[in-house]
């Protein structure tokens, strides 16, 4: 905490003297002399309280991690400003959400004391109870469920609305995660934002996946693909704009003309969910012109690997050479190393990959009678149908723009690609993401300065997660571990309604969520509401009365971030550990989340597992190999209230060395597996080759469903909210006042819709009523609707009631944008 030097005494007399002096010097030109307009009053000076400034961090899951100054006067937060990093002023940023944090502290929506539901779920009818009563009731219920149904009958949802380690749920090493592991409860995964990161891991192995922000200036071209950085990642937008002003070409590929597109040198509008097809068309054009990065593909990817007719890799054991070495797999098991075989053009022989001088990319004859083809040949074959004309028809991108894009990636210097999560939010999100990855590899735009992916800034990471959740109790007892990991859709659609998981009994009796709003933020709100009404006992811990809080049986009031201390470790846009000082006392009867977790643990009989102070726990979090090497402790962070962590390289996969077993980027997997199991039907052939693509489920313009529901919705981020947080700040409603639907004027005219009309968007799942905004930046048959409003803020219905919660067959991902609707004027 620091003290501001702005403390002063100020009176009308001071003002009069100052104004008169300024008038005499001409500084107040046009103002009448003070003596003619103001009279002396003899007032006593009014003492302005001294301002104290505390270190703060914005802890929402917008991913920015902004460092804040929290200004306090007379024990009240009066202002927030951008904090300053001595060693990184380029990260001194604050957005409108950060600027209005005082309004969140003093929001009328704050939960003031523990409450028990007395009316119907969702009615908002509660009675006030004491903390002792609330904790006792929770413990009594949970103990009875534990005894009768086992600890897995209690399900935790670790929300991302607070990314502090002590209070939040999102960091894997959080205190809430420890409570879950100590109790042996079930963990329900939100299954959001999985597809694009899964595609990176699938092809590149272990990360980090992107070059750091400082490298942005070195690119000759930036391609922002599938998002609006100026809205979704405000902290990073200036890096692109500064590079553009220095001469870097800024290209935006998006489904609508939005803020970042308006700043671009070249905007490429693409039909929703067809980005993967665009990448395949560009790859085919690259092959057609002979522009592929042959040396990069040969030396830094698995393109030369040989595939047998049965779809398996050719290995040395196929040639009679049995494995002699072993390695340790991810499960800690020793397994034999059976090397991949390539055809070495230098020696004209089949050799292990590691021994090849010049592995062939194609044209390999049968080896010892075994017919083979290279990954490269499979890629060429897969993209062959994607002619310029076919790609243009599917994507809406002109033939000329597809040709230009292929030329840019291969003939015009370094290209850095910022692949946003717009691709992620469709049922085919992983396929589109892998196709764009493949474009980067085929063009050799990886592993060097000015190229590769741009994903933000590295940071300390989650911390020493295993030490946090497995740390023994004061008496030496080891936590029993998470009882079960449940996918949201399985939990919502199958486990809770039937009491079974994969045919086995799996009763769920209680649901505990902290720092989240599942009713608004998960897809298919109808299913979510069925879930909330089916579970016997629901405990919600939060700051405000959001949509999910309305369904609680017991409500626990958590204090605001500035009313407690915490360490922020989870963010993506600056390289710092951020310490959040306690600036003011918690309002009403609210408590820090950290304290609430410990109260629950004590009441459940697990108090011995929580006999640590906040500092002791945080030092465990910080005890990673990097943390130990650098001597990072909570006291060291407190020296400045931030600490830079340059633990990741500036250039991802520098020199073309990837995080895979071979050190090469992968195009093919011989035995892919889904990342979840709900007993779903699988066609694993789709998951093998990275250039496989199929249309989205409902966003696809050629899907017959579009005859009945001709529009697709992009449920986009808002400037003024992080998911539904900040819904209670009226200042920001001056900018985004109400739910709207931005629609192309030609579409609107066909439906008789004018600006400001009330319209209904609907499909077989549900509907939402909102106001129409005519926007020529929208494509035909594609609308944009901000998705961060509460249900009660809509005229009727909810945007989330139009979406589905089914997953792609291999990727557990919420498809927020893959939604078709019809529109009518009311």
Task: Give the overall silhouette.
Answer: globular
Number of strands: 38
- Strand numbers in spatial order across the main sheet: 8-7-28-27-26-9-10-23
Class based on secondary structure composition and strand pairing? alpha/beta
DSSP helix fraction: 25-40%
Q: What is the number of helical segments per DSSP (H or I, 4+ residues)?
A: 26
Distance between the termini: 55 Å
Query: In what range is the share of β-strand residues?
Result: 15-25%
Largest sheet: 8 strands, mixed
Low-confidence stretches: 5-39
Could you tell me the mean pLDDT?
Answer: 92
Radius of gyration: 29 Å
Brief digest:
The protein has 826 residues and is α/β, with parallel strands linked by helices. Helix content is 27%, strand content 19%.
Question: Can you tell me about this structure?
Answer:
The relative contact order is 0.16. The two termini are 55 Å apart. α7 (195-204) packs parallel to α16 (429-442). This protein has an eight-stranded mixed sheet with strand order 8-7-28-27-26-9-10-23. Strands 32, 33, 34, 35, 36, 37 and 38 form a seven-stranded mixed sheet that branches. The protein is of the alpha/beta class and 826 residues long. β9 (154-158), α6 (175-183) and β10 (186-189) form a beta-alpha-beta unit.
């Amino acid at each position: 905490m620091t003290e501001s030097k702005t403390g002063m005494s100020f009176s009308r007399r001071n003002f009069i003297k100052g104004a008169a002096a300024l008038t005499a010097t001409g500084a107040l030109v046009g103002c009448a002399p003070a003596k003619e307009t103001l009279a002396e009053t003899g007032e006593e000076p009014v003492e302005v309280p001294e301002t104290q400034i505390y270190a703060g961090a914005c802890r929402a899951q917008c991913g920015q991690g902004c460092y804040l100054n929290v200004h306090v006067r007379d024990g009240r937060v009066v202002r927030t400003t951008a904090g300053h990093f001595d060693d990184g002023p380029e990260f001194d940023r604050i957005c409108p959400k950060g600027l209005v944090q005082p309004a969140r502290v003093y929001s009328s929506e704050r939960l003031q004391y523990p409450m028990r539901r007395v009316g119907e779920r969702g009615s908002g009818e509660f009675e006030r109870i004491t903390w002792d009563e609330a904790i006792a009731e929770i413990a009594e219920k949970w103990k009875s469920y534990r005894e009768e149904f086992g600890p897995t009958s209690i399900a935790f949802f670790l929300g991302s609305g607070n990314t502090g380690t002590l209070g939040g749920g999102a960091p894997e090493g959080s205190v809430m995660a420890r409570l879950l592991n100590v109790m042996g409860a079930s963990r329900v995964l939100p299954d959001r934002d999985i597809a694009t990161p899964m595609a990176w891991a699938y092809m590149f192995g272990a990360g980090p996946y992107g070059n750091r922000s400082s490298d942005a200036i070195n690119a000759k071209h930036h391609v922002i693909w599938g998002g609006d950085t100026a809205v979704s990642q405000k902290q990073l937008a200036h890096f692109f704009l500064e590079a553009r002003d220095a001469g870097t070409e800024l290209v935006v590929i998006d489904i609508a003309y939005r803020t970042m597109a308006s700043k671009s040198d070249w905007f490429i509008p693409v039909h929703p969910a067809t980005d993967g097809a665009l990448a395949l068309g560009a790859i085919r054009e690259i092959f057609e012109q002979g522009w592929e990065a042959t040396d990069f593909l040969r030396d830094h990817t698995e393109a030369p690997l040989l595939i047998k007719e049965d779809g398996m890799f050719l290995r040395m054991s196929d040639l009679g050479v049995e494995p002699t070495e072993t390695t340790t797999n991810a499960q800690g098991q020793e397994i034999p190393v059976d090397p991949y075989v390539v055809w070495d053009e230098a020696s004209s022989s089949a050799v292990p990959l590691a021994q090849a001088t010049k592995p062939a990319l194609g044209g390999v004859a049968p080896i010892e009678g075994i017919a083979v083809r290279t990954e490269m040949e499979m890629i060429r074959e897969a993209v062959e149908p994607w002619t310029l004309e076919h790609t243009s028809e599917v994507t809406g991108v002109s033939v000329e723009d597809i040709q230009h894009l292929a030329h840019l990636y291969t003939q015009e210097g370094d290209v850095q690609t910022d692949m946003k999560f717009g691709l992620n939010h469709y049922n085919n999100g992983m396929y589109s993401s892998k196709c764009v990855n493949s474009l980067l590899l085929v063009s050799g735009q990886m592993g060097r300065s000015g190229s590769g992916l741009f994903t933000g800034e590295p940071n300390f990471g989650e911390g020493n997660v295993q030490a946090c959740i497995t740390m023994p109790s004061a008496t030496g007892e080891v936590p029993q571990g998470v009882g079960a990991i449940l996918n949201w859709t399985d939990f919502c659609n199958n486990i809770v309604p039937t009491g079974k998981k994969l045919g086995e009994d799996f009763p769920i009796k209680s649901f505990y969520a902290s720092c989240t709003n599942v009713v608004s933020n998960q897809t298919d709100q109808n299913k979510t509401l069925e879930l909330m009404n089916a579970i016997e006992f629901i405990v919600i811990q939060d700051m405000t009365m959001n949509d999910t809080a309305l369904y609680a049986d017991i409500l626990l009031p958590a204090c605001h971030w500035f009313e407690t201390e915490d360490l922020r470790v989870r963010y993506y846009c600056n390289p710092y550990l951020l310490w959040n000082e306690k600036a003011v006392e918690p309002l009403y009867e609210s408590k820090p989340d950290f304290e609430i977790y410990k109260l629950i643990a004590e009441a459940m009989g697990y108090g011995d597992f929580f006999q640590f102070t906040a500092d002791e726990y945080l030092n465990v979090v910080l005890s990673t190999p990097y943390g130990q090497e650098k001597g990072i402790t909570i006291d060291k962070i407190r020296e400045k209230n931030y600490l830079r962590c340059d633990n990741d390289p500036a250039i991802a996969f520098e020199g073309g060395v990837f995080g895979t077993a071979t050190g090469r980027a992968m195009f093919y997997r011989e035995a892919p597996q889904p990342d979840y199991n709900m007993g779903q039907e699988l066609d694993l052939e789709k998951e093998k080759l990275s250039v496989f693509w199929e249309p989205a489920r409902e966003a696809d313009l050629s899907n017959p469903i579009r005859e009945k529901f001709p529009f697709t919705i992009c449920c986009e981020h808002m400037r003024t909210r992080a998911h539904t947080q900040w819904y209670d700040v009226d200042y920001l409603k001056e900018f985004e006042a109400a739910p709207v639907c931005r629609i192309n004027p030609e579409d609107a005219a066909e439906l008789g819709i004018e600006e400001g009309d009330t319209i209904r968007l609907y499909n077989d799942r549900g509907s939402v009523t909102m106001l129409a905004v005519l926007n020529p930046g929208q494509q035909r048959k594609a609308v944009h609707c901000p998705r961060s409003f509460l249900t009660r803020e809509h005229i009727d219905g909810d945007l989330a009631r139009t979406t589905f919660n089914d997953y792609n067959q291999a990727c557990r991902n919420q498809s927020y944008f893959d939604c078709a609707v019809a529109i009518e004027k009311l």
